[in-house]
Write a structure and sequence with these properties.
3 domains; four-stranded mixed sheet; about 325 residues; about 20% helix; alpha+beta; single chain
Amino acid sequence: MDLPMASGQFDRDAARRNDANYLNSLKDSPNTSYILVTARGEVAIKSDHVYGQAPHGGLTPPDLAHMEAEQLLELSHAQVAQLPFSPQEPYYLGKYGEKSYLALRVEAPSQQLEENRQYCFAPLRAVAGMLEPYQGELAAAAVALATWDKNTKFCERCGASLKLACAGWEKHCTACAHITYPRTDPAIIVAITDDAERLLLIHGATWQPGRYSVVAGFVEAGESLEAAVAREALEETGIKISQASYCSSQPWPFPRSLMFAFTARAGGQQEPKADMQEVGHAFWVSREEFTQLVLEGKVIVPGRASSGHALVRAWYGRELPQPR
């Protein structure tokens, strides 16, 4: 299963993150490109489309009507120097082909962009499925680092301030020298089907009306992925699964998740019952029923940037329908 932001196409070049001479040589090299991100999960793209804010809770916006290919904005050192705002210290992302990539975190670019329509900042959750695979992966790494950098200010051991190091991939305590690394929280997402090949859809209790996806949740301490799949299905919908199969994984830096996608089977004549805390509605749907509900606008599916979209599409067997 091919997922956005998970191509593995670029070289992270981790061995050179502490090579100060090499990193300095990159800054004004003609083979270096800079990309711009915010700690809110936005990336700068070469586009005049207007993208609204992404939904809360790490959800994916529904697909837009145009769904055209988008490109990351890649800047030279000279272009960075002319930006109408001050970026932070760059993060070294790695290499793709002959190019090296640095990421810059900007704080609040929206006002300055009113005067520059050559590019815009868009939620990565909205555009990841429209970027080239390597660009989606670069953007995911950059957003993950920017969010971690913004939110991690003090040492977890002694409370002293932290200093960015290792080209953005570490923070060192200024008092006790403890090293802090970017954190990733594992989560599962699972497409559950019954013996009639119906898919289990859920509506989150805090989601917008009509929005549906598949069961998902965080892995608990000391828990295996497979156990998390079974627990989340039972807790959220009352469904007991008989088997689970791993499909793929996807970074989801909103703010710091790694999604593990599964399929699972629920045997017998089980009827879902939403827990009414995390899930407000759960039901089985056939492919024919699903088609009609989406066409009528009664079910809004996750955008194609997400593993939820990929799991539903794999069950459906073709591209998902669009509302009329």
